[in-house]
Amino acid sequence: MFLNLSKKTYKKLFFITAGIVLVLALIPNSDIGTSSDKLNHIIAFFTLSLLLNRASSTLNARLRNMLALIIFGISIEVFQYFTTYRSSDYKDVVADGVGILLFQLLLSLYRAYKHGRAYMRGV
User: Fold this and answer.
1) pTM to 2 decimals?
2) What is d(CA 123, CA 105) in angstroms, rounded to the nearest whole number?
């Protein structure tokens, strides 16, 4: 069911989710998510990667999306630097990158598996 949404719907879901991530990153510390700040970053950027990937289809778009998400993560840290109640940490951007790369790795493995199964059916 979730995979059958239109690209336009995935774009809307992406922007809604990105807005929520931004708000959560800029409000005073909340108890939303896991007890690990870095795991929260990984989950958030994995999810953003999934939504943005489903909204696009080419390799160039995937690369552009990854760069845009890293810039988004860096921007969040810059915004946090200017608050008095949040701290900016380069390790958060690293965790963001881990979430992005984890999604891309799992997507690539899934596609390779799917391609291999299709090849085996044709043999």
Assistant:
1) 0.87
2) 27
